[in-house]
Amino acid sequence: MKLSVLALGLAAGLALAAPAGAQGAATRDPAQIQAGTYAVDPSHTQAVFTVTHFGFSPYTGIFSDVSGSLELQPSKPAESRLKVTIPVKSLYTPSQHMMDSLKSDKWLDVAQFPEMTFTSTKVTPEGKDKAKVTGDLTLHGVTKPVTLDVTLVGAGANPINKKVTVGFEAKGTIKRSDFGVKTFVPAISDEVHLVLNGAFERKD
């Protein structure tokens, strides 16, 4: 499940919509980032997936209304902790037929498994702005360990609402059959590419 193309388009749109002086306010220097407890900003956080459709083309969907928290320790990143919850019913694709199918019991079964969650268990820094974050992903009623490659996008005061904000991009790959979602494997790829574009606002 892949998000990067959508993310680039949305980023461009947001940049055009931002007021004068709003750009360039963020930093990627961990020494300037405030430690503390952050909450997901659901308006600017997305979870994207991409699979290969019958070998013809990538097919992407997006989840929204993400919630969760981040315990951020920039000076001791290994002590940071993340937990996010994603409502499966928020799934969007350009096709209503595909959305209905993916939410049915043949695929994600929203009625029985309304949420997916990721809870970090280990953070391994890789340079000043990257880390590998390992955690438990619960999807379709199954919990498996997953490792995400996380990159700091930027941090600072949001120029519109003035809230201290930090943003990350996280990427990973899973096999959907490991989570009991086996419909049309391998014609529709078992491998699913995941991207989480996460914005977090610091709690006062």
Automatic annotation (TrEMBL):
Cleaved signal peptide residues: 1-17
Domain Lipid/polyisoprenoid-binding YceI-like: 37-201
Pfam families registered for this protein in UniProt: YceI
Family annotation (Gene3D superfamilies): Lipid/polyisoprenoid-binding, YceI-like
UniProt keywords, alphabetically: Signal
Protein name per the record: Polyisoprenoid-binding protein
Source organism (scientific name): Methylobacterium currus
